[in-house]
Specification:
380 residues; vacuole; PX Domain; PX_dom; single chain; 66% helix
Length: 380
């Protein structure tokens, strides 16, 4: 029976870091998706050692040996030979009749495989169903601790999907014209963001477990482990995801605040329009006269045109507060400049004293030279 995972290393690249190293792009094709993981030779070497320790057996193909005289960065031919050797090494494990290496935690962690793809089962439909469950609903229990590196990745992809749903809901909310539709979109975005926030917390706890510092550290160490580089990469992924979640929450709050302001402005404008209409009818004996729009005093700007009097007052207070803050910052800068000026002045005084001492020493030396010249003149 053909394996459920197709593995290849079609390309390599050089890292942008210094010193450079070769990166091998391992492509995996599963029944429901395809993805690529990037590894360097040291990752293969560490995986090979872990695989032997977990299975107590040598893999069906040997790992390409490390060379002390050739470098894959500068030697393109040697880099291609190693790429072919590593590809044959992975394919031999993947296509071997003995599945002990494919069912090991090291194999899943190294290739970032879903848990359902760890073993080859007799029924192809059962494999596809388990893969689909692992991708769409990893873990089945979101509150359960994460102790498997592959499950962590599936959980992370699910969290990113919730962030994507929140962003789409906010985009729809910005395009809706009725308050009811806007409220529905906002509720959907808030639900997705709350879900993503709880999942980020679970992922952070899972990283602690995978690094050996969490409550489930012993279970993690017994099943699979991650290197320091992979842990840092996943921490960066979580930091970026949290920033994205915070940005979407700020956008949601800004939209809600803008809706409240627009509703208040519309209500005030309706009241003013009714009052002006009533006054015009009373003054003209029942005849309707066009009412003037906008404020009479002052000059309108782009920032005040859409605000009522209370809004303009709040804007002025905010501008005055910003100006006070700017003045305070400027005062701090001026005080700092004054301190620097005082320090420079003191340093100049010290330098002047040193120059005076140097002048006095120069005068004494000159007088001694004159005496010496006179004595030389008398001797000669």
């Amino acid at each position: 029976m053909a394996p459920s995972v197709e593995i290849a290393i079609p390309t390599t690249s050089l890292s942008p870091t210094s010193p450079q190293h070769t990166i091998y792009h391992v492509t995996l094709r599963l029944p429901l998706r395809s993805f690529t993981v990037s590894k360097r030779y040291s990752d293969f070497s560490a995986f090979h050692t872990t695989l032997i320790n977990q299975t107590n057996a040598q893999p069906p193909a040997p790992l390409p040996a490390k060379s002390w005289f050739s470098n894959t960065v500068s030697n393109e031919r040697f880099r291609e030979e190693r790429r072919i050797g590593l590809e044959e090494y992975l394919r031999a494990i993947n296509e071997a009749e003995d599945g002990r290496w494919r069912t090991s935690p090291a194999w899943r962690a190294f290739l970032n495989l879903p848990t359902a793809a760890a073993s080859t089962v007799a029924s192809t439909g059962n494999t596809s169903a388990r893969l689909h469950a692992a991708i769409t609903d990893p873990g089945n229990a979101f509150n359960a601790p994460i102790t498997d590196p592959t499950l962590w990745l599936d959980y992370f992809r699910d969290m990113k999907a919730h962030l994507h749903d929140a962003r789409l809901a906010l985009s729809r909310r910005d395009q809706e014209t009725t308050p009811q539709k806007q409220h529905e979109s906002s509720a959907q975005a808030k639900s997705s963001l709350v879900r993503a926030s709880s999942m980020i917390s679970t992922l952070e706890e899972g990283l602690l477990n995978l690094s050996g510092r969490g409550a489930q550290a012993s279970k993690t160490q017994s099943s699979a482990s991650l290197g320091e580089g992979e842990l840092r990469r996943r921490k960066d992924l979580l930091i970026n995801a949290r920033k994205e979640k915070d940005g979407l929450e700020d956008l949601l709050h800004a939209m809600a605040a803008k809706s409240k302001i627009d509703y208040a402005v519309a209500s005030i404008q309706d009241k003013e329009a009714l009052m002006k209409a009533g006054n015009s009818l009373g003054d003209s004996g029942g005849r309707r006269t066009p009412a003037k729009s906008g404020r009479v005093l002052g000059k309108e700007t782009e920032r005040t045109r859409e605000l009522d009097n209370d809004g303009v007052l709040q804007l002025q207070k905010q501008m005055m507060k910003d100006q006070d803050t700017s003045v305070e910052e400027l005062m701090k800068v001026i005080i700092r400049q004054r301190e620097l000026g005082t320090a420079i002045h003191n340093e100049l005084e010290v330098q002047n004293e040193l120059l005076k001492l140097a002048d006095e020493d120069t005068d004494r030396l000159k007088s001694k030279l004159d005496v010496g010249k006179k004595r030389i003149g008398r001797i000669s």
